[in-house]
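Summary of Year 1 activities. Much of the first year was spent building the evaluation harness for sequence design. The harness presents a backbone, in tokenized form, and records the residue chosen at every position. We chose the following record to illustrate the format because it has been used consistently in internal testing since the harness was completed.
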């Protein structure tokens, strides 16, 4: 959690605002104030200077705060929750999407017939599609229906001549995105159209998988950039596809699955949002629910691959989900995880860290002060994480590029082949 700003206290200064000649402070009556109070003043100054250093480093690395804009975090149940709560067609209350645990949700759906499940998914697609603990195949069905409904809504907006041209163009772009997500074979595990849009997709057979992984991305990822072609291996889709391909190559007879998860509001650019934990604090409960929901449906505890600001989300979500729901945790290209020790993540497996020599993230100060910064460097031996080689990775988004040693190491971790990690 971010450190809170200490309560303001009167500065130990003389009546004219000066200190004494020997460096101690003085009260208004001339009495010297030495020891702890003078030391506190120096401590506050050091903290302020350090906080400014974090801000200065981010500004220098991004061309200024204008590189990022403040985002409004999307939280809570997806649209349609009120209609879901009011549905009494089964003769009993449906699990509240805001308060029911994934275990409760899983138990509820286990007590329904298949036709009953399908009717609920068809009536309340956005709710069922985002309900952690619901059967995986049912969520795929619900999200496909939700995407078709949203596409129809955007198509109507795009063809409405009363709307401004800019609105119609945006609607056409959104409709095209929904069409792409509806392509045959895509398995959409989560879809929320609010804000910039959030989505999660599964690669592989999640229900049969013996080893699973969740890719948690950093800044600038949303519905429109989730699977972009530019800087492909900086997207959750690119990273997940590459990892799943490597898992299949390394263990062709072992069923595996990788989830590309963009289920939180990410920072845009590297401005103030990227320097604080505000968006991570909003997104961590969603990631924790995903993890406990996977456990409730019988999936093995996944390895978390946490890239850049995604490390901050993982650092807050993993302890919340608990050891039973989290396997190994891999922090790469990480500014920190809002903790000083790997053990504080409470991973069921090991905690790992990777950073290549050309990653600019190394220039960010590893402090957490007055709400700025994200704490200790995960690659520092004092943090306690196991190191993964990234000698052949390049830049901030090259860790899962095919052929890199970091990708090979990550795949070995997901498969539990720790002896193969270099």
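For this record, the design step produced the sequence shown next.
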């Amino acid at each position: 959690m971010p450190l809170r700003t200490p309560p303001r206290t009167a500065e130990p200064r003389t009546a004219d605002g000066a200190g004494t000649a020997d460096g101690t402070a003085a009260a208004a009556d001339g009495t010297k104030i030495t020891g702890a109070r003078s030391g506190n003043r120096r401590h506050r100054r050091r903290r302020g200077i350090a906080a400014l250093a974090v801000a200065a480093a981010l500004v220098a690395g991004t061309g200024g705060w204008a590189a990022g804009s403040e985002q409004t975090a999307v939280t809570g149940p997806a649209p349609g929750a009120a209609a879901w709560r009011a549905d009494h067609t089964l003769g009993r209350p449906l699990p509240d999407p805001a308060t029911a645990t994934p275990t409760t949700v899983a138990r509820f759906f286990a007590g329904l017939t298949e036709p009953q499940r399908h009717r609920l998914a068809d009536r309340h697609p956005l709710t069922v599609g985002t309900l952690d603990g619901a059967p995986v195949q049912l969520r795929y069905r619900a999200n496909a229906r939700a995407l078709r409904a949203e596409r129809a809504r955007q198509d109507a907006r795009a063809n409405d001549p009363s709307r401004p041209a800019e609105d119609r163009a945006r609607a056409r772009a959104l409709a095209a995105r929904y069409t792409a997500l509806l392509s045959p074979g895509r398995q959409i595990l989560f879809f929320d159209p609010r804000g910039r849009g959030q989505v999660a997709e599964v690669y592989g057979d999640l229900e049969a998988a013996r080893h699973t992984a969740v890719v948690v991305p950093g800044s600038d990822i949303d519905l429109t950039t989730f699977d972009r072609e530019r800087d492909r291996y900086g997207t959750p889709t690119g990273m997940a596809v590459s990892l799943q391909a490597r898992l299949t190559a390394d263990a062709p007879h072992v069923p595996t699955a990788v989830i590309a998860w963009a289920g939180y509001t990410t920072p845009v650019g590297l401005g103030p949002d990227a320097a604080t934990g505000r968006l991570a604090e909003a997104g961590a409960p969603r990631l924790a629910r995903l993890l406990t929901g996977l456990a409730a449906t019988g999936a093995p505890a996944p390895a978390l691959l946490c890239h850049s600001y995604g490390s901050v989300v993982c650092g807050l979500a993993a302890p919340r989900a608990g050891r039973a729901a989290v396997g190994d945790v891999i922090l790469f290209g990480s500014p920190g995880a809002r903790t000083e020790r790997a053990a504080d993540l409470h991973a069921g497996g090991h905690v790992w860290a990777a950073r290549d020599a050309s990653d600019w993230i190394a220039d960010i100060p590893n402090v957490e002060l007055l709400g700025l910064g994200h704490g200790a460097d995960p690659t520092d031996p004092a943090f306690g994480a196991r190191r993964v080689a990234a000698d052949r990775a390049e830049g901030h988004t090259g860790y899962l590029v095919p052929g890199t040693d970091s990708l090979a190491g990550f795949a070995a971790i997901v498969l539990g082949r720790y002896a193969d990690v270099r």
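The mean pLDDT is 88. Quantitative recovery figures across the full test set are reported in Table 2.
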